[in-house]
Each structure stands twice: as C-alpha cells, then as structure tokens.
Amino acid sequence: MFCFLGHAVGSPCPTLVMDVTELPRDDDGLLTAIRRARRALRRRGLAEVLKFALIRPSDHPLFDLDYRFVQCLPGDGGDDFDTRGSCGHSILVSVQAASRFGWVRDLTPGRRIRVRVVGHHEHVVCELDGVNRTGHEFTSHFVYSPELRLGGGLPTGSVRDELEGPDGPIPVTLATFSNPYVFVPAHRLGIHDEETLFGEDEGLYGTLQDLRAQGARRLGLAPRGSFPKIACVGAFHPGSLSLRAISVPRWHPSVALTGAACVAATSVVRGSVPHELARTTGGQPGRLRLRTAGGAAEVGVSATGVTPDDLLRWISIAGRTVRSLGGVRLPELEGLRRSAVDDEENATWLPLNV
To answer: Residue 341 contacts by C-beta under 8 Å, 6 or more apart in sequence?
Structure first.
C-alpha cells in the first residue's frame, strides 16, 4: 500500500497519510492497519512518526476530502492510540497527499481544498498561499456549519474553573473549540517574561502535566490519553499572546494548529483566561498574533459577539508551511484491503472508538 509522509513546520513529528479506501471499514480492522503501519515505520527507522491521517475523496458535494486522525501514544508497555481528536497540521499534510494521490487538482496559490473532519462539527478550508520546491504554505479556515454557540465550546459551562496548582488554586479556562484545551495564565505560575516561558523548565513541565491530568478528569477523559491539551498563556507583547504547549510526549515546538484555533476562539469569550490576557496587551480579542518558541502566527475569528450565547462562525490562521517527505510503500498492509462489499460508492464510515 502506498502512503504519504509530510511534516508541517512547527509540528512535533511527521504525519503518515493513509488512503482509507484501501483499508477495512470496521473499527478493529482500521486499528489493526494502523498498528501494522506503526510497526512497519519502526522497522524503517521512522519511529518518530506518531500521527496518522485517514483520508478519502469525499462523497459530499461541498467537500473535497473526508479526514480522520489517530494519535499514537508511545509507552514502555507498547503503543496506544487515541482517536478522539483532530490535528490541523495533519490536515495540511493530507491535502498534500491528496494531490499526490491525484484526488485534487494541482496545488497553486489561491486554490482552496475543503476538508470534512469526520466525527467533528467543524470543516477546514485549506487555502494555498505559496509553493516552493520543498513544500506549500497555507492559511487554514476552521468553519463552523451550523454556527456554534461560544458557550458550546466551554464544556463545564463556565468561562473559568479552578485547578489545584503547586501553591494553591489556579484559574484556568477549559475549552473544546476544535480540540479540548486547558489554558493557564503564565503569571499565576510565576512566569513574567517570554524567555522563562519558552525555556526548558522541568518544573513547569511537571506542573502543566499535573494540571492537564486534573483537567482531563474534570472533562471525564482519561489522563493517560492525549486530550485535553494544555497551554500556558502569557501577555508580554502588545497585541500578542505568548503560548507554551505540551504535545505527545514532550514540549510542543510551537503550538498545534487546533490549539491556535482553540485559543483564538476562546479569546473572544468575555471573562476567559485568553480574553483577559489579550485585553491587557491592548489587543483585540479574536484578532491576535500568537507567539511561540517555534515562531508566530496571525489568527482571526468571526463571531457575533463575546458572550456564551453568541455564535462562532470561523477561525482563520495564516502562515503554516508543510514539507513533503515523499511516499512510502507498506506491503505489510496489503492483506487488509477492503472487501468488494465495503467498496460500495456510498459506503459510510463507522465510528472508530477505543
């Protein structure tokens, strides 16, 4: 089976994109295929690949691609896999792969590829800004149709919650726009400058991991899983928020595309941690520059207002580059092809839950 490898600049690892039309439809069969792919990558010296994208040409007339995401969780006792979230960087790699598979026209500036994220209420429009010999640069638009109540992205029903920090309760915002996140104000952890925030402080890493686990339990999620993500947020520059996030299983080199979308949407909601921090910088919530250790990104949000009852329309994030790493053939997957019955044109995907 031919698969595609690509790496979005700022992502913690490459993504392997798999043509799901060549794979079983049932849950067990799909997970078996991903486990085989993971073992095959290890044998080829590609153990760092922890992201798997499953794509197919969409049978919906408004979309080009259907997309699902699986995150590998490496562990001493073997790999686990989390299928509950999405990954914006992997969506961009999937667009590259779809072009390589011949499913979409040539990727030229101005071209828009519309991706349906299966199992989520969002759609992603990937707008091509530039092309060079090694990759493509995109602006990503996370579109909500129907429009989402801002309060619908606050799973506890509150703009602020409290988690227990090293020195007492810490106000945080739990949000689920695109992916679940815990947003922690940097100054409440004693961080008052960007240099400290972007350092490799093991104490901060441990504190954030503990807060993340508390947030997971608050949301009814397993602390061992990859969600919620967590980001420490600082207000150190005019019109900007500075972010330090954790990925699987280390510091994120920048911030996930879904993380940028989540903090941008949350910054619109009056009273949330990102909203209050954005106000202190003199910036306009929902129109921000996000600064990370791996670079910066411009984000914009279209919403009808700033209360939980207002509606979120879309989120746009500019300036993400994807590098093609080429194709890889995995004959280990050849025995898992779908049956003729599964290949019916209008077949739908079954839920993939583990």
So the answer is: none
Residue 61 phi, psi (nearest 5)? -65, -15
Instruction: For residue 203, count CB atoms less than 10 angstroms from its CB and return exposed for 0-12, middle for 13-18, buried for 19 or more.
Output: exposed
Query: Is 346's pLDDT higher than 60?
Result: no
pLDDT greater than 90 at residue 26: no
DSSP state of 336: G
**Residue 295 parent element (H or E):** strand 295-303
Residue 180 has pLDDT above 90, yes or no: yes
Determine the length of the chain.
354
**Which pair of tokens denotes residue 294?**
């791996």
| Model pLDDT for residues 65-97, shown as the tens digit of each residue | 999 999 999 887 778 998 888 999 999 999 999
Which H, E and C letters describe 54-119, residue by residue? EEEECCCCCCCEEEEEEEEECCCCCCEEECCCCCHHHHHHHHHHHHHHCCCCCCCCCCEEEEEECC
Tens of pLDDT, residue by residue over 282-299, are: 888 788 999 999 999 999
Q: What is the pLDDT of residue 110?
A: 95
Distance of CA 10 to the CA centre of its chain: 12
335: which residues sit within 8 A by CB, 6+ positions away?
Answer: none
Which pLDDT score is estimated for 344?
Answer: 41
Three-state secondary-structure class, residue 294: coil
Would you state the structure tokens that stand for residue 142, as one six-digit string?
A: 């996370």
Is the N-terminal amide bond of 14 cis, ω within 30° of 0?
A: no
CA-based angle 328:332:338, to the nearest 5?
Answer: 100
Number of H helices, E strands in the chain: 6, 16
- The answer to whether 54 and 23 have CB atoms below 8 angstroms apart is yes
The rounded distance, in Å, linking the Cα atoms of 85 and 199 is 28
Q: What is the pLDDT of residue 238?
A: 94
Q: How confident is the model at residue 354 (pLDDT cuts 50, 70, 90)?
A: very low
Q: How many CB atoms lie within 10 A of CB 167?
A: 9
Phi and psi at residue 249, in whole multiples of 5°?
Answer: -115, 45
Residue 40 has pLDDT above 50, yes or no: yes
51 backbone dihedrals φ, ψ, rounded to 5°: -115, 135
Sign of torsion, CA 343 345 37 35?
negative
